[in-house]
Amino acid sequence: MTLQVADSYQIEIGSITQKHFDWLRGKEYAGWIVFADDNTVIDCLPLIEHYLPEGTPVVVAPEGELNKHLGTCQELWEAMFEAGVGRRWCAICLGGGVLEDMSGFVASTYKRGIDFLQIPTTLLSMVDSSVGGKLGIDFNHVKNSIGVFNDPVAVWIDPAFLKTLSAREVRSGYGEIVKHALIADREQWEAVKTITKLEEVDWSTIIPASVNIKREVVLEDPFEKGLRKSLNFGHTIGHAIESFWLETEDRLFHGEAVAAGMIMESWLSTQLDSLSGDDLEEITTYLLKIYGHQAVPESAFGQLLTLMRQDKKNEDSRINFTLLSAPGSARVNATAEPDMIVAALRWYNGLG
Amino acid sequence: MTLQVADSYQIEIGSITQKHFDWLRGKEYAGWIVFADDNTVIDCLPLIEHYLPEGTPVVVAPEGELNKHLGTCQELWEAMFEAGVGRRWCAICLGGGVLEDMSGFVASTYKRGIDFLQIPTTLLSMVDSSVGGKLGIDFNHVKNSIGVFNDPVAVWIDPAFLKTLSAREVRSGYGEIVKHALIADREQWEAVKTITKLEEVDWSTIIPASVNIKREVVLEDPFEKGLRKSLNFGHTIGHAIESFWLETEDRLFHGEAVAAGMIMESWLSTQLDSLSGDDLEEITTYLLKIYGHQAVPESAFGQLLTLMRQDKKNEDSRINFTLLSAPGSARVNATAEPDMIVAALRWYNGLG
């Protein structure tokens, strides 16, 4: 299936075939270069490499959020120079969100920008980073704080890559599917909350529905002036938690941190918006069933608040949230005082 | 005087006054941050600082092309975090081409991009980098090889800043004025070639004419697919020479390197295009009178060719040039074989 994103590019969802690469060949690039990571070069590249011309350079980035920084960008830019990549080349970015965000940024800034194509290989990147043109890296301990908005020439989503993932990775990506439903589509939420066994989900139907929610939000507000901020639901607290645990052994996957964030921000929604207690309970019960509970030590509260204050979503010193008025309905540009946020963290801890 | 650049922004040429800053205040940014360099913070900031709200953060970058790299960008990004700069802030970039290119890039990638305003303080940046949205830094020994295209909210060109420059800096910037005339405006070339004393030029008339040539070229071809490449005249060899001497004590200013490049590429234009011998002589005589002659050692030829091959203007392994068919008329996408380029270097050396 094809989803049109503005005039600029299309998202193809389904098996990647010769047809896809024929289309790419039709664009007459001077060359192709593949970006992969330590994992996708082994697990995912074999699914497409027979479509690539012999000698296509493949650049492998170290995997994981901890490597999503300027140092890795330098290695990738150097590899592009070494491969003789020119302005009329196209980069094929094969990986999860980290690789997609970083290699897209690298392509968008190499010689002031070359075209790039995204082939997301994780559930998270299929339903989230594949739409919306957000590219970048972490800097100064703040996630995605250096980057650009830029669209790929196309996104090819092939659920076959999901077989290369661990159950935990699939669960992490699923968090964004829950989020899309909660912020914009009550009907989808009614469907999603009946899912209890992720290994039995038919991804070929649920991915297009979820991508489409994001697509509609992004088309209406590409540069995050308003509506698009609704996608940040669960992410103000979620990003802080993810950053806090990033350099520890218990590090949380993005979707796990966001699930905890969605629980806490749903509680904030009952305090600062009109979310009902029944809806809060339903959301909380569902997310705890899927993701379990990870207590947040009181000693971390100060640092978490600091991280939230640095979040690029804030427009001044206040901490910005997207809250739910009801399942399927979000309100952007809400703020919460530190005391209230601490109360949310304590309330969440009490659920454990 | 006001030059409109597409719908997106205006270039104001003339004294910077309270009116300018009232207009900026009307845009209701959450804050302003000033980028300057070691020189402009001393020489230029005093001309505008009484218009800035008390406490406006001023970030000072080390001056010069050798500092136009990723390490300096990191310092600037860190300073922005420290100053609490949010997405709705505006950066005011006060400096020459190096500072404008680099701080514009830093602003365009900080939190995926904040607005920025350019106040060019050198003749080079007034007539060249002020129009066209090219931002970036040097990387891997290649000039401007990492960057983006992005337009400022406005450019304010005030010839008063020229008084802060050395005669050599003025002469460097003047090279682009000559170039604009040669590639696109024969009449302007007839006027320019009568100028022999740069200290007597009325910049308030010559700058608008020159900026306007560049503006018309860029409006027609913002992303350098074709016509805009005409602005690269003199720059294929000029950039290589500039890079080669960059780390030496005799380093050439940009305009000096480009003047030598224009002489050699004019010679190539007689060999590979229809430029007449008389025009070549006129161009050569004029440029040598203004810029003198700087011999290029034979031992450097190999490295210069390597630098030219890495130039981001090339679309494959061939070395790309813009040549003149006649003064005022350029042809883009010409190529020259290494032997021919070496011949141009030798011919130039013979002029000394």
Automatic annotation (TrEMBL), chains A, B:
Domain 3-dehydroquinate synthase C-terminal: 173-314
Membrane among keywords: no
Descriptive protein name: 3-dehydroquinate synthase
GO biological process terms on file: aromatic amino acid family biosynthetic process; chorismate biosynthetic process
Listed cofactors: NAD(+); Co(2+)
EC assignment: 4.2.3.4
Species in which this protein is naturally found: Neolewinella agarilytica
Gene3D superfamilies tied to this protein: 3.40.50.1970, Dehydroquinate synthase-like - alpha domain (1.20.1090.10)
Biological role stated in the UniProt entry: Catalyzes the conversion of 3-deoxy-D-arabino-heptulosonate 7-phosphate (DAHP) to dehydroquinate (DHQ).
Key word Iron present: no
Molecular function in Gene Ontology: 3-dehydroquinate synthase activity; metal ion binding; nucleotide binding
3-dehydroquinate synthase N-terminal domain location: 59-171
